[in-house]
UniProtKB/TrEMBL annotation:
Keyword presence, Heme: no
Domain Ketoreductase as annotated: residue spans: 14-217
GO molecular function, one term: oxidoreductase activity, acting on the CH-OH group of donors, NAD or NADP as acceptor
SMART domains on file: PKS_KR (SM00822)
Organism: Leucobacter luti
Record's keyword annotation contains Oxidoreductase: yes
Keywords, comma-separated and alphabetical: Oxidoreductase
Protein name: Short-subunit dehydrogenase
Amino acid sequence: MATKRLPRRVIPGATVLITGAARGMGELYARRAAREGAAAIALWDLETERAEALAAELDGSAGAHDVGGTAGSTPRVRAFTVDVSQREDVVRALAETRAELGDPDVVVNNAGIVRGALFWEHDPETDIELTMRINTLAPMWLTREVLPAMIADRTRPKRILNIASAAGTLPNPRMSVYAASKWAMIGWSESLRLELERDGQRHIAVTTFCPSYISTGMFAGARGPILTPIMTPERAVRAAWDGMLSGIPLVMRPWTVKLAMALRGVLPTRVWDAVGGRVFRVYSSMDRFTGRG
């Protein structure tokens, strides 16, 4: 039996919270929320000046009309300085967000960092612990805080969009900690989705987005595997956002991400190592990584 897709009329009138919202994909999610008629948008980031500049630009901008938003709708957009690696700061910022904009209807767990290095070159605190805190624990902390209100309010659809990575589906040299953080996120996100569905919370949809490399600067120097071009942020955001609106559980882009995941599942490990490493060149994709710097 085909899974029934949830209604796409999610954003008009909604309160949207985006982490890592000051630049890159976070900024694009914010712009799309404003275009589609969100009533309020919370921009969470440590880059205060960039977030405040974006908030000033989007605050009061007209919502888009092509998705059924109210003509001339003017979202309230506010920037909040938040260190998502600290649970206390997440709790504090959410209280401030609620006081000013109300409970979030849509949460985009977008904030993330990457350290491209051999595992033994990672610093235990500034690399390993910080990556796990930002990429894995922060989405859990924030989602745990917003869920009770989401569960209680059935007046409108709710959405949780978790930005994971293709790195969470395959091992890859020079990104062991990053891969670990995204493997954990996928496992948590998918389990959360099932828990909500089994509990009858059908008004809440959880979408996990697993993209390959995106040209935001975060993965500067990385090379896309064979048949896997580096995506533009616009293309990635479009895929994740549309999947979130439709309540699609797992969105993978490009198509080779799902292919590689399937091959690794059916092939013996050493055979996949040869195919993934020598044929698709997955294992050398981070050899020239420099990052945003």
